[in-house]
Amino acid sequence: MMNSKIIKTKKRNRIKSNLLSRFDKFVYEMIEDRELLKFTRELKPGAKYAIFGGMLRDFSLYGHKEFTSDIDVVVQQKENTNLINVLKKYNTKINSLGGLRVKVGKWVLDIWHLENTWAFKEGLIKEYSFKSLVNTTFFNWDAIVLELDNKERRLYCKKNYFNDLERRYLTINLEMNPNPRGVAYRALKHFIMNDANISYSLAQYINNQVEIYGKENIINNIILKQGKLSLNLVNMALEQIKKYLEEKQTGSIKFINPQLELKFNEDNYLNVKMENVEKIENSLSKVVQIKYVKEQLQLLDRHL
User: Fold this and answer.
1) Among 162, 110, 172, 170, which Cα is nearest to 136's?
2) Residue 88: pLDDT over 90
3) Is the pLDDT higher at 246 or at 282?
4) What SS3 state is found at 298?
5) What residue numbers bound the domain in which 107 lies?
6) How many domains does the chain fold into?
7) What's the CA gap between 225 and 208, in Å, rounded?
8) What CA–CA distance (Å, rounded) separates 151 from 106?
9) Does position 111 have pLDDT exceeding 60, yes or no?
């Protein structure tokens, strides 16, 4: 009988393999106009670059077909004539952190030089390498890097990375960051929309930002930035986090949406009460709704 360590290793390797397979399918099958494929091929001569963070996270969580976000690209050589020549062909702007924001077909890429990574520049992480990028992210979910060059590709992540994703466990990887309020918004989005189980330290971080900037300010800004979130949902999430911290509960906390209620009637039958269905569908992903109902049904089975 295999021990739990071997099982976990096999599981981790399988998830890694699935991620790389999804990456391949995205590049070679899912790009209708092939613009991104053309761009990456133009970069290859003499270039050392890596895909970082969100794209790989979303591929691991949801698969490549649902991906529509920006792509983070880190380049190793600061003086790269080929890169400069390639970027001249595209719509390129300076982004808020001093990197380059490039429009390639229907995709937006944020490109920056490795040594200009914020945590490196601030001296928080001493080693400058693609591998050490996994130590520079605020969220543990973003701590993943796929290095690409002419010969091979290398995937870097923390030991528990895929296990954390599978459990939807979201916590702080590196607390220091250039935009504390912004990461609080993102944490709330993951908490409400992406079925995240957030750690005590992350819940505390969110609550601290609320105390600094004010609850109304946080709510209004996150609704402005994340159009799918309603005032009621964000307010409920903040109240649940506050209660969790006040009661000093152990373990992580998961968002409970009271608009989707599961009740027992007198005959111990399950009565599913769904109010304002359209509002819920606009606020939460269908995947989260279905998973929530399944979990409640499992709880019911244990009680009957």
Assistant:
1) 172
2) no
3) 246
4) helix
5) 4-166
6) 3
7) 20
8) 28
9) yes
